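Lecture notes, unit on protein representations.

Consider one protein chain, 339 amino acids long.
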Amino acid sequence: MRRYLREFLADPRVLDINPVGRWALLNLIILPLRPRKSAAAYRQIWTDRGSPLLTNSQDLTAAVRARLGDDWVVELGMRYQRPSIASALDKLRASGADRIVVFPLYPQYSASSTGSSVEEVFRVAARPWVTPTLSFIEPFYDDPGFIEAFAERGRPILQAEHPDHVLFSFHGLPERHMRKADPTGSHCLAAAGCCDRLVAANRHCYRAQCFATARALGARLGWPEQSSSISFQSRLGRTPWIRPYTDVVLTELAAQGKKRVVVFCPAFVADCLETLEEIGIRAQRDFVAAGGERLTLVPSLNASTSWVDAVVGLVGRQAERFGAVGPRATAVAFETTRR
């Protein structure tokens, strides 16, 4: 955990403060305390195969590899720790691939996830004398295949649970990240409805893309808008993060008499600490303690058939756009362990 946190939080796109402050915060406050707490949380979700994020990502990689066939080489790289992006690119290079479709497995764009991963791919790909041709799949927050894959995961649970409320909980980010992505400098978080629709000013705004995902998924499920809401989880530190906060919203729902809540986490395409422990264990416990009866987490996409179909479709369309169809056309799927 210390190695991971050191690499993760030393990334200036993640902890975007001055270098001296970042070093002090990381080495004097976070690293002495956080690893033990994170390790305790991981113990609750660890499996015989290891970390769910890694094993779910490996399963997806294997399924996509099988579907794409022998003309493709598919490798998994993690933004932090192993298997690394560098090791994935090395394997692709050794296979003879020189046209690479890079698939950042983050539905919504943020500089701290998508941006950091893209930057790392460029950095590593530039090392050899002959650099590969790269093409990146853009954020797929409203892709019909992605939306339908999540809807398929949720429909049986909605039918079984008959919830009073559906919550779409996304990973949170500091508010300053939204403002830095606003080219106008005056739109993001300036008004309550700034994310209600996508416009030029918020086209790269993570929060606005999360709202777009929730709207599309709610419509696909046929779930009434008045019986759902959007929130953001996993906040860290004292600076303001994007609101509303998931833990606060769940307490409020319980106080309003909502007894059964179903939670989707559509910022995550693989189950991980933030879904399994933070929502499936901690949020469930806190919701019941606040007066609710049951909170049910919708499993993430993992290696479900509909998600494999969506991934193959996105990769194939991207490859066609930049002429990478044929022998040794290559897909790279990568994900980050967020903490």
